[in-house]
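hey can u check if this looks right to u? its 421 residues, i copy pasted from the old doc so theres a chance i mangled smth
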Amino acid sequence: MPSNTVLTPDKILRAAYAVMHQKSNFIMKVNRQYDDAFDADGVNGGETLRIRVPTQFTVRTGNTMATQNYVERSVPLPRSTIKGVDLNFGQQELSFSLEDFTERVIAPAASRLIAAVEEDAFSMYKQVPNFVGSVTVTTASGLNYLQFQTAGRYISENLAPPTDRYVCVNPESRVTFSDAVKGLFQSTEKIRDQYVEGLMGRTGGFDVAENTIVPAHTSGTFTATTISVTTTAGSTGFFDGTGNAYSNTPFSINIDGTSAITLEAGDIVTFSGVNDVHPETKQDLGYLKRFVVQAQATGTSTLTFTILPVPIVGGAYANVSAAILNNAVMTLLGPATTVAAITYGQNLFFHKDAFAFVTADLIDPSQFGAWGGRRVEDNLSLRIWRQGDIANGSIPCRLDIAYGYTPVYPWWATRHVHMRS
């Protein structure tokens, strides 16, 4: 066993990072950035970073120029969340070997912290419009290989690069998918991992990992036979993309003359006659465009709610084949007519750049002579701070992280939805 040495804040932070890296297979797989603008004074709640999204253009035919506007897109990323784990340990624990200290103190603390952060970050699924699977049946439905590949198809049709693709599956889907692909060829080492260790590895162009934190979703509900949109109550049914105009402000949709209806943030809806299009050629892809409800909305005879992406007609950012017309029928993924809300399981397929997770430095206590410090490793900034409490005769310690997250290309992700057993 290694000899005991007094542990420094830097050694402890390195051990904490190693544990968090091992325990996380969502945050550690997305686009993870570090903002060094706060490396002197530390971050405070409320700052917002804007992430630029590549510009798109239209293409002319013929020799005559058709100049167009340059419209730069960006998405806001707030860094307003600080989470931490607070604990007490004394000088005796600091004389443990690093291995003992990690096992007894750091591992449970860092594991709990990264789980809480990852649970928070998984809420980004509520802006992912693409889905595969079915939730209209009353029996459990797992993840099969056709659904797996179809999820990748939607990501590819939205022009995500073929590399850096990942899947987080819940334990139930890991079981059903492992069974579904057990007859497919894999190397001897991969077979050993799958059947001995329960690991799924890489298949179908994705790195696959089991994640117990992938959230289920509870849908809204309605009692009308059909849900019809009205564009006569202040909603145009589309955003005019002429001149390469672009909007990412949640788009309002009006419903009139319905019975009771409730929509939840994260609900997926489609509208009759509104298909998805190729991002560059603008050719109709032959299936309905999916939209995601942005906030809970409840109504009886009328209802206004918001969706993303914004339905854009015309210009370089056109993303629908047609506007949402008056009396278009809206379909909600989830309950059938007159059926109450349902809760369905989810798995998340994504390209690394679909989501961004940013950390920033908190105030470094060592500059004030306190026991503690902060460390940035692989764009993850952590802080530890320990100080004696004279009044209570204890030595409390805090392990902190300041972070923010946002979907950057939510169409580079796909939700697999399924009824749970």
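Residues 257 and 301 are 5 Å apart (CA to CA).
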